[in-house]
Amino acid sequence: MKCCYLFGAGSDFPPPRRPGEGDVVIAVDGGLAACRRAGLTPLLAVGDFDSLGEPPRDCPTLPLPVQKDDTDMRVAALEGLRQGCDTFFICGGTGGRPDHTVANLQLMHELAQKGALPFLCGEGYLSSVIAGGRLSFSRRMRGTISVFCLSGKAGGVTLSGLLYPLSDATLTYDRPLGVSNAFTGRAATVTVEDGCLLVMWERLCNELPRFFPPEGEAAGKSQNG
Q1: Of the given ranges (25-39, 75-89, 105-119, 211-225), which has the lowest mean pLDDT?
Q2: Which of 214, 205, 93, 215 is nearest to 223 (CA)?
Q3: What is the CATH number of the domain that holds 117?
Q4: What is the pLDDT of residues 80-106, one digit of tens each?
Q5: Residues 175/171/73/85 CA torsion (nearest 10 deg)
Q6: How far is the C-alpha of 192 from the C-alpha of 168, rounded, in Å?
Q7: Which among 139, 161, 150 has a CA at the least distance from the CA of 200?
Q8: Residue that terminates a domain, selected from 93, 123, 153
Q9: Residues with Cβ < 8 Å from 40, sequence gap 6 or more?
Q10: DSSP tag of 29
Q11: Residue 220's pLDDT is what?
């Protein structure tokens, strides 16, 4: 597992764990300030630097034009993929402009489709997107958890160990059937066989779920070890 930490210019919500040896830290435009407040030195600063006024001089930069088709965050995430990262923590990706929050949810969808596991750090919650496979939560988790369809349909959705279980259900993007579920003190799983799911849960602790990709892909990778 190789993690990429992306620090954006939104609200300053720290990642659930600090980078380890070999992980990649990328500052996205004005997110450089949050990166420094966290005591981290970015491998790279990416952006048009409209938030900073000028490119930083104390780290390598990837300058981008102001007028472009991609967000600075997406360019930074693609750089993380090129660096071989398979797990992404997006910090400072919420709490600012709502259009950028939606853009980051779409970015998580893209990362999941490319085989990566993304996490978005928000105010009092964490969220992830899976394109097939299973998220497994320990019995220590507490609070609410919600599941939303991000594609036209998400088939084979099974929720176990939660207050409101589902078995081989189909969720659609136009009905929030999976909103406001809850952990119960038992181990819980969220599974989807076809389509993409956005999974959001209260951040009452920094424990992360394990991800098990669909059969035929790599073995499950722990996000806690």
Answers
A1: 211-225
A2: 205
A3: 3.40.50.10240
A4: 999 999 999 999 878 777 888 899 999
A5: 160
A6: 8
A7: 150
A8: 123
A9: 5, 7, 18, 19, 25
A10: G
A11: 46
